[in-house]
Amino acid sequence: MASQSVVFLQGLVLIVCASLRSNAQQGYGSGAQCVSPDVGPFAVVAVLTGNSTAKGVIHIDQPAPGQPSTITGQLTRLTPNSIHGFHVHGLGDLSKGCESAGAHYNPTKQTHGDPNSGPHHIGDLGNIASDANGVINVNIVSKDVQLTGQYSVVGRMILVHLVMDDLGMGGNTASLVTGNSGARLACGVLGQLKL
Ligand SMILES: [Cu+2]
Ligand SMILES: [Zn+2]
């Protein structure tokens, strides 16, 4: 009886979802209630501020688990024509501003590096560059940044640094940990955007 009940309930849900979708197609409301949170698409947003003039908003979108994420947004009021390290840090703790964001998100225990080749942290996003007006338009595709599963970045911090990330090629110990990208200019917690 128990398994029959489960089958019955699953059937009922399918019928209700099909009905909602049909109504949505006809313009009578939304079928969004039937999208499982484990299937996607996923989206998060972070509002970046800190102990500098730099600020901005970053979105991350991922169509489905395991697929690449797209990191987009704009940061303003940076030094014109400058290059800045950009990372996901492990903690979402803003109690001491960007200083309590922890280290680069690195659950796979790699050395710091270039996100496009060789060993690197999951949180390594390379460098972003400002234009003559001190504006950075961010548009990064990452196969490492996931919004679901055991390595999800949701609730962690995205952070822009004072200077260029050396991508692990700086020839010193810090290079393989932080990329020598200097002070933390602005950061924000990656918060859930869609149900
Ligand atoms: Cu960083
Ligand atoms: Zn790193």
From TrEMBL:
<feature type="domain" description="Superoxide dismutase copper/zinc binding">
    <location>
        <begin position="55"/>
        <end position="189"/>
    </location>
</feature>
<dbReference type="InterPro" id="IPR024134">
    <property type="entry name" value="SOD_Cu/Zn_/chaperone"/>
</dbReference>
<feature type="signal peptide">
    <location>
        <begin position="1"/>
        <end position="24"/>
    </location>
</feature>
<dbReference type="GO" id="GO:0006801">
    <property type="term" value="P:superoxide metabolic process"/>
</dbReference>
<dbReference type="InterPro" id="IPR001424">
    <property type="entry name" value="SOD_Cu_Zn_dom"/>
</dbReference>
<keyword id="KW-0732">Signal</keyword>
<dbReference type="InterPro" id="IPR018152">
    <property type="entry name" value="SOD_Cu/Zn_BS"/>
</dbReference>
<dbReference type="GO" id="GO:0005507">
    <property type="term" value="F:copper ion binding"/>
</dbReference>
<dbReference type="Pfam" id="PF00080">
    <property type="entry name" value="Sod_Cu"/>
</dbReference>
<dbReference type="InterPro" id="IPR036423">
    <property type="entry name" value="SOD-like_Cu/Zn_dom_sf"/>
</dbReference>
<protein>
    <submittedName>
        <fullName>Superoxide dismutase (Cu-Zn)</fullName>
    </submittedName>
</protein>
